[in-house]
Amino acid sequence: MKIAEKFASKDAVVGVVGLGYVGLPLVLAYANAGYHSIGFDIDESKAEALLAGRSYIKHIPGEQVATAKESGKLDATIDFSRVSECDALVLCVPTPLDEHFEPDLSYVVKTIEAIVPHLREGQIISLESTTYPGTTDEELVTRVEAAGLKVGETAFVVYSPEREDPGNAQFAATNIPKVVGGVTAECLEAGVALYEAAFEQVVPVSSCKVAELTKLLENIYRAVNIGLVNELKVAADKMDIDIWEVIRAASTKPFGFNAFYPGPGLGGHCIPIDPFYLTWKAREYGVHTRFIELAGEVNRGMPDYVIHRTMEALNGRGKSVKGSKIVLLGLAYKSNVDDMRESPTFTLMDGFKRLGAEVSYYDPHVPVVGPTREHMDWAGKESLPWTEERLREQDCVVIATKHDAFDLKELATWSDLIVDTRNAMADTETRDGLVVKA
Predict the structure, then answer these.
(1) Considering the entire predicted model, what is its pTM?
(2) Strand ranges of the sheet holding 435-437, from the earlier edge strand across to the other edge
(3) Active site residue 86
(4) Is pLDDT at 116 greater than 90 in this prediction?
(5) Rounded-to-integer distance, Cα 380 and Cα 243, Å
(6) Of these residues, 187, 208, 270, 396, which one is catalytic?
(7) Residue 433 pLDDT
(8) Which homologous superfamily does the CATH classification assign to the domain defined by 303-438?
(9) Is the pLDDT of residue 156 over 80?
(10) What superfamily in CATH does domain 209-300 come from?
């Protein structure tokens, strides 16, 4: 039976490798679409949770996992020999930067090398990890063919960038258009069959490189525009202008303007990282991507700006940062999720600690700091309790992420000084001098 026919009859088995913020919604999507789905991960606790019908990601309800498990369509394992059971394998593993802001493909390479010994003829292998153009051909195709398979004939390799937006209730995995590019026309046909099985709209493109660059463009667009408003925020502050009011006014223009908002820095696994995958690859072709690098420089400088504004605000009360109690509100990088990846709050906490402050955080979505690659010193630290006593004893509250769970009226009543990086207090009545925007 051809692979397209297997998907049409729902006899295909789909394997998803990497069960994080991208992989978990994807494996659930295929299970819900009626396909036997197997989630693979090296973290045994994730497999155990899924087998027990539990979710380990806050914005993905446990009921979704339980329903998929009870249907008999969801399975999970740490045993990579079961790769041979799958008709399609979708790789969703991290692609971070190293300490020199260069691509770290170690997770991709290790994953490919883990599955290659168990591949068989007729399978589709799709890479979804964000990366530079050429990765699929250079890292995936070469290893698949070294294992004795012929891409386009006995195996089908595609690239399809993930477009997850954790916590966005309007767009879930399956109603976001799915871009896919194949190594050959036959690969593309197989990839379209794979993704049409679960997604409402599939967007085929002419090559894996086009699909790889599509993802980078999407996030570079956001990074550059956020860098622009971050730079304008600093300039507006010097001019005693509220940048948030400016953005609101500009947003009334019905054409030619899309609103982007400033913050304390970039977070998440995409926007702070993806642009540098292109700048690194572009250097191979003698191209200097100055615009992208400048935006990155501006965005990476925002935590220092927030720290400086906090120092000024404390000085205005006759206090120094050293010895002050400072609590950061929001450890997750965006509103209403528990995703701490690349969160600028960590950078702020590090900076205040270096200056001698007594640093704590409050985040109902992250009650305890889990292990991270870059900020291991904070692992195990618990969220401050939300009580009048604990907030009143703080010298300064810094709003780094705006969660709906924050009671801003209580915050305004109990706090002595609030440094607001998200314009969170705009609609809350406050006494004069309480809030400093940063």
Answers:
(1) 0.91
(2) 358-362, 325-329, 396-399, 418-420, 435-437
(3) no
(4) yes
(5) 37
(6) 270
(7) 94
(8) NAD(P)-binding Rossmann-like Domain (3.40.50.720)
(9) yes
(10) N-(1-d-carboxylethyl)-l-norvaline Dehydrogenase; domain 2 (1.10.1040.10)
